[in-house]
Fold:
Amino acid sequence: MSIEATAEGVKPVGLPRLNEPAPEFEAVTTHGVIRLSDYRGRWLILFSHPADFTPVCTTEFIAFTEIYPELQKRGVDLLGLSIDSVYSHIAWIRNIKEKTGVEIPFPIIADLNKEVATLYGMIMPGESKTETSRCVFVIDPNGILRAMIYYPLTTGRNMHEILRLIDALQTTDAHKVATPANWQPGDKVIVPPPTTLEMAEERVRAGYECVDWYLCKKEL
Structure:
């Protein structure tokens, strides 16, 4: 993704693109300095939140912590971000533990200069010029950006959908298939559509569950 300099600083020209390398960065976090390349070989969920010590964000961090063991089973790491300072992050994490008993296990980027937020298009001026939106970026073990989800400031994220998205991506990678609407692990998957007339005729005779030649499902 290209960038340009303005009177307000570095500004993105377009958002990151799916199936292209995720923008590289180095940033200060609550676990020390971290680079995107540190996660090479594992899946990563990079997500942003508007601000520390805010109610919706607090519920989200507790919820992300709840699914963290399931993500780790799938080889997925978590990395949070907001444009608060590292001291604010540390104080907030300590406050969450004190008030709720929940210990946040993953690092949070302190992006005071908005460099990472700018690279990933996390700031939506129509919503807020001073806070990052609720963004989710799924990056695969090769550093390729595979999925993006953007939520408004007022809407907390659905952790079940984030887990489902990871399961779907890993299933499609492993089996070279696609997943239908509302797919859950164990459901039938979609066989890639044929690209020739001969393949279409073979598809109908292959024993799949077919609505028609272009829409066939199978068990894994």
Observations:
- Confidence is low (pLDDT under 50) at residues 1-13.
- Residues 176-218 form a domain with the Antioxidant, Horf6; Chain A, domain 2 fold (CATH 3.30.1020.10).
- The chain has two domains: 3-157, 176-218.
- The longest strand covers residues 76-82.
